Amino acid sequence: MIPNTTAAAMRCAVIGGGAWGTAIADRLARNGHDTVLWAREKDVVEAINTRHENPRFLADIPLSPALVAAADMSQALRGAQLVVYAAPSHVLRPVVASCAQHIGAGTVLSVATKGIERETLALMTEVVGEAAPGHPVVAVSGPSFAAEVAKGQPTAVVAACADHSAAKLVQGAMSASAFRVYTSDDVVGVELGGALKNVMALATGILDGLGMGFNPRAALITRGLAEMTRLGVALGAKADTFAGLAGLGDLVLTCTGALSRNRAVGVAIGMGQTLDEAIAGKDTVAEGVLNTQSAKALADKTGVAMPIVDAAHRILFDGCAPRDAVAELMARELRAERD
C-alpha cells in the first residue's frame, strides 16, 4: 500500500541528471508516471536509455526501465503536468529560463535544489518563479541521500508551497511505501533549512578532519540549528519548521552521514587541504561552499548573528586556520543559551 498517494498518473519532467534528479525521476517512474529526465551529459542520457543506470552520478543502482532520458530540454518539458528542477543552485536560473516557453499552462513546478542564489540571495523557489513565472512552485527538501532513495531506503521529506493544492499534487506524485512526503506552507523555512544545513555540514566536517571528537560535533550541530532558526525567523519563517525534517532532520543527516559531499569537503579542509584541492576533480557540487557565501551575506544584510557561518567563511575564503577559527568560537563572550 502506498500512503498518501492520490495523484493519477501524469506526465512528469525532471530537469537535472545528477544523483538527486535521477533518484527523483526514478521514483516518479516507479510510481507509474510518464517521466522524462533531462541531462546535460550525453553519457548519462545514453546509459539511462540503454542500460537503465546512471553510472556517472548514481553508480551500481538499477533504474526503472520506464524512465526515459533526453538531451533536449524542450522534449522533456513537452506536455509535462509536473516539472521538477534538480540542477545545481548556481546554474538553476539560466537552466529554467532557457526553456521556460515550453512549460504548458497549468503546469506545477517543483524545485529539489537546495541553496541560496549567491548574486541575488534569492531562494530556489524564487529563482524558478522569476525565470518561469505564472506557475505555483513547490520546494522539496528533507534528509535524503539520493543513493538511499534510489535503493528504496525509507525516507521522509517535505513539499512546501503557499498553494496547498500544488503541494498536495507533489506529495501524491512522489509518495511511495518507502518515500513519505509531508506538506508545509512554510516555504522560507523549508528552503533555508535545506540550504543552511550544508554550511553546518562543512563546518562539522572540518571538526572531524581536525580529529576532534563527538562533543564538538554535538555542540556545532546544536548551535548551528540555533543560527539557522534565528536567520529563518528574521526572514519570516516559522521557528518550528527548523525542528522538522527540512531543518533538524536534514542537518543531522548531512553533518553525520558518510555520503554527505559537504561534510567530505570539510573533512579534507580540516586535514589540511585548501578549498581548491578539496573540490578539485569532483563531478558533484558541494552546495555548502556557495551557500557559505550566501548565508554570510544574508546574515550581514539582516543583522543576524551567525558565528559558525562567519567562522566557516573565514576558513574557506579568508585563509583562517581551522584550529584558530574553532578557538575563536570557543572564546566568544559568555551568554545565556537562549539569548
Class inferred from helices and paired strands: alpha/beta
**CATH homology superfamily name of the largest domain:** NAD(P)-binding Rossmann-like Domain
Counting DSSP H or I runs of 4 or more residues, the number of helices is 15
Q: H/E order of the elements?
A: EHEHEHEHEHEHEHEHHHHHHHH
Q: How would you explain this protein's 3D organization?
A:
The chain is of the alpha/beta class and 339 residues long. It folds into 2 domains: 175 residues, Rossmann fold (3-Layer(aba) Sandwich); 138 residues, N-(1-d-carboxylethyl)-l-norvaline Dehydrogenase, domain 2 (Orthogonal Bundle), CATH 1.10.1040.10. 49% of the residues lie in helices and 11% in strands. It contains 15 helices and 8 strands. An 8-stranded mixed β-sheet has the order 3-2-1-4-5-6-7-8, with helices on both faces. Helix 5 links the parallel strand 5 and strand 6. Helix 8 crosses helix 14. The radius of gyration is 19 Å and the shape is globular. The N terminus is likely disordered.
Quick synopsis:
Helix content is 49%, strand content 11%.
